[in-house]
Amino acid sequence: MTRRHGEVRSAAGLNPLGHVAWGYRDRSEFLARAAEYIADGLARNQRILYACDASSAALRNELDEMGFAEAVRTGQIAVTPVAEHYRFVPGTDVVDAEATVADGVAAMNYVVGAGCSGCRAVVDGAVLVRTPEQRAAFARLEYLVDQKMAVLPFAALCAYNLTLLGDAAKELMCLHPMVNTGAVGFRIYAGQGIDFALAGELDAAVHAAFSTALQWIWPLAAGDEVVIDARALDFVTHPQLVALDRLAAADGRQVVLRTDRRMVARLAKLLGLTNLRVEAPDLADVG
Question: Which residues form the MEDS domain (predicted)?
Answer without folding.
Answer: 19-177
